Amino acid sequence: MSSRTRRSILLQDVRPWGGAPTDITIEDGVITALAPHRADAPAPEGGDRLDGRGLLALPGLINSHAHVDKSWWGKPWVSYGGEATTQGRIAHERAERGALGIPSTDSTELVMQEFLRHGTTATRTHVDVDLGVGLDGIASVRAAAERLDGALEVEIVAFPQDGVIRRPGVLELLDRAAQEGAASIGGLDPAGIDRDPVAQLDGLVEIAVHREVGLDIHIHDGNDLGVFQFELLAERTVQAGLQGRVTVSHGFALGDVSGTRQTELVAALAEAGISWASVAPPGRGRLPWASMREHGLRLGLGTDGIRDLWSPYGDGDMLRIALGFARLHGLRYDEELVDAVRLTSTDSASFVHRDQHDLVVGSRADVVLVDAENVPDALLRAARREVVLAGGRVVVEGGELAL
After folding, report:
1. Residue 172: partners with Cβ closer than 8 Å, 6 or more residues away
2. Residue 283: its pLDDT value, please?
3. Who contacts 394 (Cβ-Cβ below 8 Å, separation ≥6)?
4. Domain match, 28 and 166 both
5. pLDDT digits (tens, 9 = 90+) for 347-369
6. Amidohydrolase domain spans which residues (predicted)?
7. Closest residue by Cα to residue 260 from 229, 304, 291, 306
């Protein structure tokens, strides 16, 4: 069923967030009513009835940090090579991507299908923009999303993986990407890669203000060097009036500081309206989550790259990412485990420019059904997504794509 010809649906006998059995009415891709389950409840006029079989219902998952353009998914296995540093990974990718046909619309579509199969219905994805591929990666991502007919909502960050200032012409490419519809532009280690943090940040901020787009900066640099860049970014965010439109991705240095200094840094970042995106990598991804929540510093989770020239890992499952986050931060109590799942759904609405994202009236009808006792059970087992609805369409049945 095309997203442009959606029918009304009565989704019966599901348990939103593990609560009481509920019937959810969906019309034109939006949740319009929730009511206690009644076996004889009438379906919307001219609509369909879908038996939820008492399954646990979650909102569609949101991937707040992906790189769908880089993957070799669907191709023969590619062995890891090159040096295990940020610069080493960049060099290896540039040397090898052409032979693998990266970027590729076909591989990108396969990754997006895996997102849907695992219950992800919206993603914010970085897409490489550089002097080699130009804007071809963005074109590939848009083409792949179009093939899925809107089932997966995709927000694009034009991303300068090979640096900005050190590659003359990249700022112009980023400006063009923003002009042609990218929701945000990205940056990368203004100090560690470009070795000129002021020039990179000033150039990016100028484009973000002029084109009225967001800004998302990868900062891998640790300790004082990373903190220095956070402070520069916060200052420029406030000066330019970009509060609520700037995100730091990874930001490992936030976990490298401690005590009063860390608390003051979190407060300053929150006051500047900066958001955080993490992929919860083991060993280096621990964040001062309690302090971030206390100060209102928004956090989203993402998969990062999936089977690409940076790493062979990844399968597109945001519940596994949430589970990794929970284990990394020592979460054990039920309410904490539920909060970890919320990071991949309701709490990440702003990362894809949604005012709300939940199993409530007015939300896009993105619903994930799993056979689990409660939300912690679904998280700890990363339970199979039995049924997934995206914008009111059934896109997964029995754990497999139904597109």
Report:
1. none
2. 82
3. 1, 50, 387, 388, 402
4. no
5. 999 999 999 999 999 999 999 99
6. 111-396
7. 291
